[in-house]
Amino acid sequence: MKFIICIFLVLFSVFVQSQDIKFSMKTDKDIFISNDIIEVAFTLSTSDYNNDEFSKFKPENLIFNIDTTAFKIVSKNVSFSSRYLTSKNVDSTKTTSKELTWKYSLKPLKTGTFTLKPAEVNSLKSNELTLKIIDSNSDEAKEFY
């Protein structure tokens, strides 16, 4: 019985630790003009600076499949940041975080509404995004200028 409880506690701690890691995909807006360059950011973050699971994520492990008939990847960038802050209040609260960000610059190849499928890193999946690309010569595009 003690063995089963130990196994449960180990598995629970791994589960809780991995739950602290968040993976998301975002852009600064959801409607773009056909001659825009779209920056898509994938962010992997944890608020636990000592999270051992976070160190298992490597930049080269990102899987991002795009519709190559709708978008062309024009550049990629990876950045890493970490922060360790201790505030000087009564309870000496500590704030820590780590963040790994991949940025892809995409050039739209056609107009329409497109869904960027979730990216994946190790076993985590991001959200999906729906983007609308409008013709740069359309009346709708003139509202953006």
- Runs in which pLDDT lies below 50 for 5 or more consecutive residues are 3-18
How far apart the termini lie comes to 69 Å
Side-by-side strand order of the widest sheet? 1-3-6-5
What is the makeup of the main sheet? 4 strands, antiparallel
Structural class: alpha+beta
What number of structural domains do the residues give?
Answer: 1
> Can you name the CATH architecture?
Sandwich
**Residue fraction in strands:** over 45%
CATH class: Mainly Beta
What is the C-alpha radius of gyration, as a whole number of Å?
20 Å
Shape: elongated
H/I helix tally = 2
Q: How many beta-strand runs?
A: 10
Instruction: Examine the coordinates and then state which fold CATH places here, giving the name of the CATH topology.
Output: Immunoglobulin-like
Integer average pLDDT:
80
Write the element-wise H/E pattern from the N-terminal end onward.
HEEEEEEEEEEH
Brief descriptors of the model:
Immunoglobulin-like, 145 residues, disordered N terminus, elongated, 2 helices
